């Protein structure tokens, strides 16, 4: 049923749980799995004010992306049969926009995202990447808690 699954990963516990689910789905369906990491640039002019600070920010973001991709890749390699793994990184966009854009551009059948399960005021204050992706995605979205 699924041929190409997109897992949004940021290395958090919520995204690790979602990655396990996505890898299992990809294994069962013989689908390829794209692990997406989104680097959302700070809004406070970090590069304009301090090129060194922006360089440090990007180095840290790339390190986090590598770690997050590495976790998903390890899950894909450990699956039997192994899952076809493809890392992807997008920059300078919000997580929901990067995820939905990648879903459109890459022609995926399913997007899997983790949810921190925030409710009430915390959800209103912080927003919800998962709920924004559900609202904007061109394909079905599976939200893993």
TrEMBL record:
Matches recorded under InterPro entries: Rossmann-like_a/b/a_fold, Universal_stress_UspA, UspA
UniProt key word Transcription: no
Keywords associated with the record: Cytoplasm
Cellular compartments annotated: Cytoplasm
SUPFAM superfamilies documented for this protein: Adenine nucleotide alpha hydrolases-like
UniProt keyword Cytoplasm, yes or no: yes
Coiled-coil blocks: none
GO cellular component, one term: cytoplasm
Sequence ranges assigned to domain UspA in this UniProt record: 1-145
Family: Belongs to the universal stress protein A family.
Protein name stated in the entry: Universal stress protein
Source organism of the structure: Ramlibacter agri
